[in-house]
Design brief:
Length: 308
C-alpha cells in the first residue's frame, strides 16, 4: 500500500467516529420529521415506532395549526421573539466589552480568576439556577423579601407579579451565558498581532483608540459569525430557563410563556407527539431562513465576515 493511501486511511479513521456520531444522532433522526404531518397512533398488531409511523393517518399541516389557533399564540410568539432579540443585542455588547476589559488585565492570576468566575455559571443547570433565584425571591424566606420586611416595606410576591420577570429572566440569561461568549471573543483578541498595538502606541494612539481601530476591526468576523448563528435561534427558547426559574408559576405566563413551554404543556395534556414535531420543524425552518437572511445582509456589508 502506497504512502498516500495509508495517509488517506489514517485521516478517514480519525474522521469516522465524528461521521458516525453525526449520522446516528443528527441525520437519522431527521426521518422523524414525517411525524409533523401524521396523526401518530400506536399500531396494536406490531407496536413498533416504524409501524406506528407508517400506519398513522396523514393529516398534512393540521398539526401546525395548534401553534396559531389559541388566544395564547400572540403571547408566546411575542415573548420568544422579543426575549431573543434583546438577549442577542445585550449579549453581544456585554461579551465584547468584558472580553476587552479582561484582555487589559495584566496580572495573569487575576485575569484567570475572573475568567473562571465568569465561565463557571455556563456549566450550571437551570434547575440549580432556579434555586439560586428562589433563595432571593422566596415569598417567606427570600433575601430580597427579608430585606423589604426589615425596611418596613410590604414584600413583593415575586412569583405572582409578571411585570418583574422580563428583567429577572434577562439577568439570569446574561449571568449564565455571557461568560461563554466572552471567552470566545477573548480568544480572538489574544490572537491579534501585538505589533499592531505597539505601532498604534508609537503613533500616539490612546487605549480607547487602540480598541477602536485595532481590536474591534479584528473582532468583526467573530462578531458576524456568532451573530448569524444566534439569529438562527431567534424562534427557539431556552426551555430550562422559562420553565424552571419561574417555578412553572401559572401567574407568570404573560411574561414567561414561550413556544417551548407552550408545546411542552400542550404535549403533556394531549400526549400528541406530532404537535411537538411540528413545532420543532417550524422552529428549524424559521431559524434556517433567518440565518440565510442574516448571512446575506452581512455579505452585502462585508463579504469576508459572512458565514458562507
Amino acid at each position: 500500500m502506497s504512502g498516500k493511501k495509508k495517509k488517506t486511511l489514517l485521516l478517514l479513521s480519525m474522521v469516522m467516529p465524528g461521521a458516525i456520531w453525526f449520522l446516528l444522532l443528527r441525520y437519522l433522526p431527521m426521518l422523524g420529521i414525517v411525524l409533523a404531518f401524521k396523526d401518530y397512533k400506536p399500531y396494536r398488531k406490531a407496536p413498533t415506532f416504524w409501524n406506528n409511523m407508517r400506519n398513522s393517518e396523514w393529516v398534512g399541516l393540521d398539526k401546525f395549526k395548534f401553534l396559531f389557533s389559541t388566544p395564547d399564540s400572540w403571547t408566546y410568539i411575542r415573548n420568544t421573539l422579543c426575549y431573543n432579540i434583546l438577549w442577542i443585542a445585550l449579549g453581544l455588547v456585554l461579551s465584547v466589552t468584558l472580553a476587552i476589559i479582561l484582555n487589559e488585565i495584566t496580572h495573569k492570576f487575576v485575569a484567570k480568576a475572573y475568567q473562571t468566575m465568569m465561565f463557571f455559571p455556563y456549566f450550571l443547570s437551570w434547575v440549580v439556577v432556579s434555586y439560586f433565584v428562589l433563595a432571593f425571591l422566596d415569598p417567606t424566606r427570600g433575601l430580597l423579601v427579608n430585606a423589604q420586611m426589615a425596611k418596613g416595606e410590604t414584600p413583593i410576591n415575586w412569583y405572582f407579579e409578571a411585570k418583574y420577570w422580563p428583567v429577572i429572566l434577562t439577568i439570569c440569561n446574561v449571568w449564565k451565558n455571557t461568560g461563554y461568549s466572552c471567552i470566545l471573543y477573548l480568544a480572538a483578541i489574544t490572537g491579534i498581532d501585538g505589533t499592531l498595538y505597539e505601532a498604534a502606541s508609537i503613533d500616539g494612539a490612546s487605549k480607547w483608540q487602540q480598541i477602536k481601530y485595532v481590536t474591534l476591526p479584528h473582532l468583526r468576523t467573530m462578531i458576524s459569525i456568532l451573530l448569524i448563528m444566534n439569529v438562527g435561534k431567534i424562534f427557539n427558547a431556552d426551555f430550562g430557563l422559562f420553565y424552571s426559574v419561574p417555578q412553572n408559576s401559572g401567574m407568570l405566563y404573560k411574561a414567561t410563556q414561550v413556544i417551548d413551554t407552550y408545546v411542552y404543556t400542550t404535549l403533556t395534556a394531549t400526549s400528541d407527539i406530532g404537535m411537538s414535531a411540528a413545532a420543532g420543524l417550524l422552529q428549524q425552518i424559521v431559524g434556517f431562513i433567518c440565518i440565510l437572511i442574516a448571512n446575506k445582509v452581512v455579505t452585502k456589508i462585508d463579504a469576508d465576515s459572512s458565514l458562507f
